[in-house]
Structure formats: structure tokens, C-alpha cells
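[Solved] Which block belongs to which protein?

Original post:
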Amino acid sequence: MFDATAFTHNRPRLDAHGITAAFFEAVVRQALDAGLCSEEHFSVDGTLIQSYASIKSFIPKDQDDDAASGGSSRGGGGFKPRNAEVDFHGQKRSNTSHFSTTDPEARLYKKGVGQGAYLSHLGHVISDNRHGLIMATGVSEANGKAECNSALDMLDGLHARRGVVPTTLGADKGYDSGPWMIELERRGITPHAAMREGPVGGVCRREKKDRPLIAARKRMARRHADEGYRLSQRARKKVEEGIGWCKTIAGLARARHVGRWKIQQQLDLAAAAYNLVRMRKLLLAG
């Protein structure tokens, strides 16, 4: 086995040849062959992965990095502290006007109301509803549309690699989006997504182009009365267990690397390890 240094040196080669992704796929194939996964009912969820970068590295795009760290770009040989004091009080920071000098791919993002915004990436997982085994993973930029777009990409990847087209897909309120529901229905998948409170069509006047999106959300609202939806939402908690294991046990709560492709490698290995632990317990129990 590689030690830490040799693994770091070979990381680009592993990415170029897709080794970590192939390892994860081999574990998924083993679970499918053992009959441990449902191929009909899946769940999807996303989670914040905090960036390796410090919030102090998030500076205006037109500001000199040296000046931001407390030094002077003109030189002078003065003392420049490694961890200079920075006062953010009263400053307005956004992804359009600022960027991280340490991790340029990271974005300032928060996933819920009342939570703090951190430099982050988004991790995505699809799991089966029978035993909660992770079937697909993804890492993307942290933005409001990433969860829905990544879910579609992972589903397309599952279909291309394994020929799997689930019957239903459970999701939380973060996936309450008319276009996303329409795309699932086009793929022959029934969305089982929780919905935000309030009128389905909104309180303001809608244009003609919005009618199909509103109709898709109304169809979703009617499914909430079905027993299948309730079972799907109950089983959806299993995907959160897998994400929690990857973040706490596998150390993905905060990225240990700079570069989204490296975080994807870490997520693939963490998901494969979670599946192997679950499969061992399931096979012993069976």
C-alpha cells in the first residue's frame, strides 16, 4: 500500500486513469451482485464540505493578496505575520466580488436559514432505499442549482454504467424544483420530494412558460397523500446516515485538499469504505 507521501505523489495518475472511481464502482457492483441493493427505489441528498481554505483568504478580486495579509506589495522588508488579524465587520462579501486565494474553486455558501456561510464545496450522494448503500457520488460548486443538476448527472451515470433506472427518487426540500421534477419524469422516474410551505403556484402572477413547472409541483403535492411517498421519505433517512458516516468517520466534514477533483477522490474512497462496512454487517446478519 502507498504511504501518505507516495499516495500524494501518485494522486494525479490515479485521477487520470480513474482508479478511485473504478474502485468505488467495483464495490457497488459487488453489492448489486450480492442482491443487497434495491434497483427501484433510491434517495438523493447533498451536503456541505467546508473548504480547506481559511475565510481570511476570501478577498476582493481587485485587491492585492500581499496587502490583504497585512503586508505591502511595495516591499520594504517589514515584518509580515503569517496569520494577520482581519476585521470583517461591516464588509459585504459575495462570490461575485471576492474569491479565495487558497482555494479559488470554493464558494461562500450556506445551506439553511440561520446558518453561517463558509467557503465550501457541495458533495452529492445517491443511495438505495433498502439498506442505504451508496450508489453514486459527486462533488460540485456550492450554488443553489448544484444539488438538482448533480442528481440528474449521477442518475445518468448510473444508467450508463449499470443500466439502472430507479422507479422513485426520494429527496428533501432542497430539491423542490419544477424543472428538476420534469427532468425526472422524462427519465421515467417518479420524484418523491418534500416541498416548501406556501402556495404551490406562488402568490404572484405567473407567465405562460411557468405553467408546466407549476403543474409538475402540483403533481408532486398530490403524491404526498400516497403511501409510497411516505415510505420513500422514511427510507430517505438512510442516505443521511451514509453522508454522516463519510463526514465524521471518513473526515469529509472539511476538505483536506485543494482542488475539487481531489475531494471527489476522497468522497469515492469514503463511500466505498462505508459500503464495505455495511455489506459486511448485512452479509453476516443474513
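(Second protein starts here: sequence line, then its C-alpha cells.)
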Amino acid sequence: MSFVQKRYEYDFPRPAVSVDVVVLRASNGGNEILLIQRGREPFTGWWALPGGFLNMEETLEEAARRELHEETGCVVDRLEQIGAFSAVNRDPRGRVISVGFLAEFDGAQVGEVAAGDDAACVEWFSIDRLPTLAFDHDQIVRRALVVRANRRPLE
């Protein structure tokens, strides 16, 4: 019997798991980040990282790729996990732990992006001029930039 078929009951609540993806690209004007404008509550109309909830039958990486593609049309080969974000009140819908990922492109690699799923709009922003972000996405972006800055060159 697989995990999905067998039902487990617990006497205590469990958190949900989500993924958020920081997509960076190099451009002539500097580094840019891909953001979506949320089309649903909570934070309707706010800018946010592409992401969403983990399905029971997928890995974190699969969920990150799926959510990124559904919301932006963007396809990535390489994702780097940058950390878990678990502030108790980070999501007004309930207890949600998010795992952050970083994807990087040069400007020519990305291709066209288009809003889909629950994203009302998708847009590139200068990393130096970000709008106010939903949830704790500003913290996730800061972590991605630290991870990127501290990366050792390949030998």
C-alpha cells in the first residue's frame, strides 16, 4: 500500500508545505527578478514570488518547477534550494512552511513569460527597485541574494 493510499490520522494539526522560486536574470541594466502579481486572496494585487503548495505525489523540486511554469510559463533546468521559511504567521491562510529555490538565467535564456494559473500579471523588476512583496517574500529574496553572493566559483 502506498503512502498516498493509506490514510494517517493524528491528534495534532500539521502545517502545509509550499515552494517559492526566486528567478534572477542578468540584463544590460543589471540584475532582474521575475515576480507575479497575485490574482487571488490573500494579498490580491500584491507582487510575489512564483510558487504554491506542494502536491502529495511530488518532490519539492517538482513542485517548484510546476508552480513556476504554471504561473509564468518559465521552464528551468537547475534549481538551488536556499532554505526553509517557517515564521508562524507568514501566511494568513494558516500554518505554512515554504521552501525557497533560486534559478538563474542570462537574459537570452529565459524566453517569453506569461501570467497563468492564479497570477494576474508577470513582470521583471530591477533587483534594486522591488515593489512591496506579499508574505515574507522579501526575506526569501534576501536569502537568495546572500546564497548567490557566497557561492564559490566552480573549480
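Accepted answer:
You had them paired correctly. Confirming on the second one: Strands lie at 16-27, 30-38, 47-48, 51-53, 80-85, 96-106, 119-126.
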